[in-house]
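User: Before I run my own analysis I want an independent prediction to cross-check against. Here's the chain; please return only the structure tokens and, at the end, one sentence I can use as a sanity check.
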Amino acid sequence: MTSQLTEIDHVAIAVNDIDAAIAWYESVFGAVVVHREVVESDGVDEALIRVADSYIQLLTPTRDDSPVAKYLAKNGEGLHHVAYRVDNCAATLEAVKASGARVIDQTPRPGSRGTIVAFVHPKASFGTLIELVEETR
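Assistant: Structure tokens:
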């Protein structure tokens, strides 16, 4: 049996100007950023807006060689990936690999806000980049 997805952790939106995006969500929806962090390993600045038990993750690159910078250059602003919570990122990633699906991360790695994450390649998942997220706190 494969590890199950437990809920949506976040929907990530790539933006050119994170402060403008935050201001828009605040003025239009009254949304408040509950977590902001620069993830050096991924070259991104992220802001999380809570929606029920999930988040909208606004992402902007902090360097030109980051995956988000490349995404923005190729596709422009918009939906970047969908992240699902899992109880065990390593087990879920192994189940994905055992199915023959292409992955970006061969092993789980540290994510923002103390999580453990791994990415499934969009060519394996009907054109959608998928992030597996295990909460560790």
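Sanity check: The radius of gyration is 15 Å.
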